[in-house]
Structures are given as structure tokens and as C-alpha cells.
Prior knowledge:
The protein is about 30% helix and about 25% strand. By secondary structure, the protein is an alpha/beta fold. The protein has a twelve-stranded mixed sheet. A six-stranded parallel sheet has the order 17-18-19-21-23-24. Strands 2-3 form a two-stranded antiparallel ribbon. α17 links the parallel β23 and β24. The protein is globular, with a radius of gyration of 26 Å. The protein starts with a helix and ends with a helix. The relative contact order is 0.05. Residues about 1-5 have low confidence and may be disordered.
Amino acid sequence: MNKCLNILDLPDELLLIICNKMNIVDVLYSLVNVNQRLDQLVLDPLTIRNLDMTIRTFESVYDQIFSIDDKILSKICDQILCRIYDQINALTIEQYSIKRILHATDYPQLYSLSLINFEGKILDQYLTDDSILRDLLSKQITHLNIDIKNANRELTEITRKIFVLILSLCKKLTELNFCDLFFERKHWNYISRLTRTSLTSSTLTKLKINLATFADCLFLLNGDFECLTTLIVHVKKKLPKLKYLSFISPDYTDKHDTQVFPFIRRMINLEELKLYLLIDVYDANYIDGIQLYNELLCHMNKLNQFTFNIQTRTYRCYTDINFSSNEDIQRSFIGKDIYKQIDSYINTKSCFRSKCHIYSLPYQFEYLLEINNSFPGGTFHTVRHLEVIDIFPFEHNFFQIISHDIPFIETLRIDNDKPQKYKHYSSTELIMFPYLKRLNLQSAHEDYAEQFLLKKITYLPYLFNLNIKCESLIMITNNFTIDTTYFNSSRVKHLYLNHSLHSENLCQYFPML
């Protein structure tokens, strides 16, 4: 009671600050129907017009819970929604609460709907059989976000069917995000087996989707999307209305000149282009600013913003080629207005193989793949997925640079079988990766297991998923005899090993397994 009185005694400004820091579900459950003053503050139209009826908690990187307690849900559905139904513009709901929330009242002002953490078959049933949901989608919803739980484990026929159902059902839809709401659970869609007539929408202006192959991307663009102006695709028909394209392909291709560049050139009225490419070339020089301009950019006269990350991996097989220097690469971007600030570096592995990395600044991609010891550093605050690879060892100082310059990474993969030469850990500052949830050391020397799993060297407060070789784990724990509190393993919920490991003490190091 005293706690309640203390809250009631707070001024409105402080109460609003407290409410803004709480989940809206907790706010509605705890503070509505306490008194008229709190009702006026909490049920303010600006507060409840975007109603998120989920609470996101992590079981692991890929296993997440969005549902809310049944008692809380009952109060909100029975006592609160009837008071605010006509003020809700955007609604976020999950699989276990959708029926109670949608059937609790009408939502005459609702135009944006997010369906979160659904199993594919369950979502398919709702889209097919639930008349209230179908009515909303066909008559009101203009903005739709779809998230399918464990989508990569679902049958591809289910996700394809859901995509087609949405396109056919939503008669007013202008913006669709299909299975790309959360970085750590992207779903790669296969749509090329659909009929072309099923890919049609006369209203859609913005689409965000991950496609499994380049063929799927081409297939999508041959669909009938007459009003599409923005396409965000993570992976030969001209689209004269398309003004914005984000093309991300995190796998190496040697088809950049025969497929990728010709595909993009067909979008003749592009105004903004984001391009992430990993390219293999044989007996040829690195991709540079001149080649990019001549083969791609000069064909798009309306382009005014070009953001890019391109890595060229070169193989010298039969021809003696003089590769460009890093200075040559940087000079190739001079003199063209479309290029703003850029950076580059070259890493030579042998006389037959080398790599060049060019990118625009400020860096704007979630991925940063296959960087090496030549990486110059900088500001990379958008990066969430990082992979490092080299034939020379990564020393402690390299990871210090990474922690400062790429501080928000959530997944990290290390590919390096060379032992570290310099281990002056005690004389250096503690390295911290406060957001790292997934660490893959399967292709790493055991020194990197020591580097990342010992708390005195690197601190990982939210490591949920660990992929590691048994040999490395046995070495750093001295066959599971060292004090468990020395390690960043207490929160790990998923442990992936290269072969089975039988140890009575394993669970002491990983109590959450």
C-alpha cells in the first residue's frame, strides 16, 4: 500500500518517465483503473495508439518468448481494450494471444498490424479461417509485419503459401515486411516455384523480404507490382517506378558482371542504392571505383545516393597480373560525385590469391564478413554479424580494436588456426562485448577460446550460443578442473561441439544447458 501511495504522490512528469521505461503491457495491467489521474496519463492517445501486446524475453539467440501472462492478458482484454479500441492505430500481437485480442473488440482506426512469433501452420490457419483477421487484412491494414517462429525449419511450402495469401488477401496493403523483423532470426524464402500470377499486388509500395537465391530475386521482380517504389532484398524486367533498392548477398559470387550488375541496371530510375557484394574473380584485378561506375552507376542517371560494401577475392590462375595497390584503389573513386567518403584495404595471402575490401562511409550494413588483420578500424556501429578470417594470427590488440570500433556485434565467427604470439593480457585493458549472444569457434585455434571465454581477458555477459571444438574446451578448463567462475559460460543455453563429450563436470560450466 505504501508503495502505491508513493507512486500516486509523484508528479505527472516523473510518472510519464517511469511509464515510458516500462513495457506497455505492464503499464496497462498495473496502473489502469487505479484512479482517474493515472487513467488519464496511461490512456493518453499518444501512448496507446501504438500498442505492443508482447513481452520479448530470450531463451537463447534463436529461441525467444513473446507471450504475456494469462492473468495480465485477461485484464487487458476484459477491462481495458474496450476503453481504447478506437484509438489504436498499430497493434503487435503473438500466436497465443491473437484470438483473445482480435475478438475482444473492434479496431476501427487500426491500419498497422504485426504478427509476431507464429508457427507457420498456425498462421496459415488464421489467415485461412479467422474471419475477423481476414476482414481486418482485406479492409483496413496498410502496413503488415510478419514473423514466423523457427521459419527456417518450416516447410517452404507453408511460408510460400502465407506470402501468396497475404498478397491476395490484403487489398489495401502498402508496406510489407515478410520474416525480416529481427536480425538474429532471418528467414530465407524460396519463391521461384510459385506461379508468376500469384505474385501480384496493385497497392504494395514497399516490400522487405529475404530471398534464398538470386533466381528467387529475379522471379520476384518479374511479378506484377505496379506501384512498388521500395524493395529491400537480402540476397529481367525493368521497374521504372523503383526508386530505392537494398541488395545484400552475403555469399561469394562470380556472376557479378553477367547477372548482378545487369539485373540492377534494369532499375533505370533508382535514386538510392545499397549494395553488399562478395565477389570472386579469376585472372582479373580487384573491383574498383572506375569499374563500378562504368559497369553499373553510369546507367542510372537519377541515382543520388550510393552505399556499398564490396569485397573482391582474386585468384591468379594462368595470367600474370599486376594487382592494384590500395592507393590505386582509393584514387579510382576520385572525380565522380556519386562517391562520397570511402575506405579500402588489401590483404595479400599469397602471390596467387589476395583480397580487396572497399566500402562507403559511414558504414551502414548489419554484416561485416571476412575482415582480416589489414582491417583499418573505424566506426561500424550498425554491424551485428561479424566474421574474421586470416592465415596470420589475430592478436589481443586486434580484438581490442574490434570491441571499440564494432561495439554492438551480436554474432561473431572466428576462422583462424594459427596460435597467438603475444599474450600480454595482464598489461592490457579488459575487452568487453556486451551484446554478443552467439560465438562460433569451430574453425579457431584453442588460443581464441582462451581469449573469449576467460573473464579476465574478455567479458561476455550475454553469451547464449557457443560453437566450439571439444579439444579447445578441455584445454582452457584443464579438463574441467578450473574454477567455473573464471569463464563466460554461465548463460550459455546452446552448446555445439564437433563431437560428443562425456564429462561429469560439463554441466557445472554450462548450468543453463
